[in-house]
Design brief:
By secondary structure, the chain is mainly α. The protein has 22 helices and no strands.
């Protein structure tokens, strides 16, 4: 690979998409090979320029190519279709057709790793974990497959409530050679785990580390979403809204599932701040952007609806929407997310959240679940003093109560 292309690949791994694009384009214009074109396509795709990336990849004829070249083109093309072109079903079918074409175990493991990532984003984290486990158990799986599978397992384990497995998956993902933006998937899994443990100091350190690595868009915007996620857990919705107000429009210009998530979080933060008009506008944007590729975050969208209704003094509707979000999380296997959703229902005035929180707390064994169940029992008993005492335990840990 020419020096420009090598430098472009290094910039890509570091998450500097602008530099990666510039160097890769120079290499292609100087007659660079397939590797140069692939770096250019990925740099374009990760900036949200899916059509430009597809044009670069469409110029590559893999009809008589080696299996290695088929894989080299197929993987970024499938990812680009899933996220940037918003064609998840077409991307999944395309990836399946490529898997039927290749025979090398390493190639199949890599395809399976990307399939696991697709399953996660499409809202099936349990299936994603199952596919990823096969990849991580395969000795022939290359580093990129391990990175995808382990980062997917990190976030899925956190959201499904297998909190004790998160750090091991995160360490394996970080140890693998992986594209720069996967660090934010890993980070969200770690942050979810730290929040469920009510360890906000650790969460703030994780956010600071990720922010320090994010010098360019879209990494900078994703890091701001993660910062806002922690701020909201601490009850600082105003500061979170400030960050998300810039991050959400930036990510909206890309195809990442971070975009719909950022709009949902922003709608929630604005509603909690009492800005009903902006919350309603933002919620509408979140609903329009949400789809299969961001189905993992459907519970967050449901909670945004609940808080928007509460801001409009529709308390009955707010409780109903929070319950629906919690049940949605449970149906998709996201037990840890369900715990937080049921506790939001308690905060919104639900007197009947104790039973589901008791049930979930037996599987999601963490401080947050235990405190949420305690608050729910106090609310169910109608004892304002007991509820104030229970919620003060969250406040003592720096958490929104």
């Amino acid at each position: 690979m020419p020096s420009d292309a090598t430098a472009a690949a290094e910039a890509l791994r570091a998450g500097d998409m602008t530099q990666a694009e510039q160097l890769a384009r120079e290499a292609v214009e100087c007659g660079g090979d397939l590797a140069c074109r692939l770096v250019l396509a990925q740099a374009l795709a990760w900036q949200g320029r899916g059509r430009d990336a597809e044009a670069v990849l469409a110029d590559v004829d893999v009809g008589t190519s080696s299996e290695a070249d088929v894989m080299a083109v197929a993987l970024p093309r499938a990812a680009n279709r899933f996220w940037m072109l918003n064609e998840p079903e077409r991307a999944t079918a395309y990836l399946s057709s490529i898997r039927n074409r290749v025979v090398e175990p390493a190639a199949r493991a890599t395809i399976d790793a990307l399939s696991a990532t697709f399953a996660m984003n499409a809202g099936n984290p349990l299936r994603a974990l199952e596919i990823a486990a096969g990849v991580l158990a395969a000795p022939e799986a290359p580093d990129v497959a391990v990175a995808w599978a382990a980062s997917t397992s990190t976030l899925c384990s956190a959201r499904t409530g297998s909190l004790d497995q998160v750090e091991a998956f995160a360490e394996r993902a970080v140890a693998a050679e992986h594209p720069g933006l996967l660090r934010y998937t890993i980070g969200l899994g770690q942050l979810t785990t730290q929040i469920m443990a009510c360890r906000l100091d650790d969460a703030e350190q994780t956010v600071a580390r990720l922010a320090g690595l994010a010098q360019q868009a879209p990494g900078r915007a994703i890091a701001d979403v993660l910062s806002a996620y922690v701020l909201m857990a601490a009850g600082d919705d105003d500061a979170a809204a400030h960050l998300l107000g810039t991050a959400a429009p930036t990510l909206d210009r890309t195809g990442y599932s971070w975009g719909p998530l950022s709009w949902s979080l922003l709608a929630t933060a604005l509603a909690r701040c009492g800005d009903l008009t902006e919350a309603a506008k933002t919620l509408s944007r979140a609903e329009r952007r949400h789809g299969t590729k961001s189905a993992l975050f459907a519970p967050e969208l449901g909670l945004a609806r609940a808080w928007r209704l509460a801001a409009g003094n529709d308390h009955h509707g707010a409780v109903a929407a929070a319950r629906q979000a919690a049940k949605m999380a449970e149906r998709s296997g996201q037990a840890a997310v369900a715990v937080r959703a049921w506790y939001d229902a308690v905060r919104l005035g639900d007197p009947r959240a104790a039973r589901p929180l008791d049930r979930l707390a037996t599987d999601v064994q963490c401080r947050y679940a235990a405190l949420a169940a305690e608050c729910a029992h106090a609310a169910a008993g109608g004892d304002a003093g007991a509820l104030a005492e229970a919620t003060s335990r969250f406040a003592a840990l720096g958490m929104a109560g």
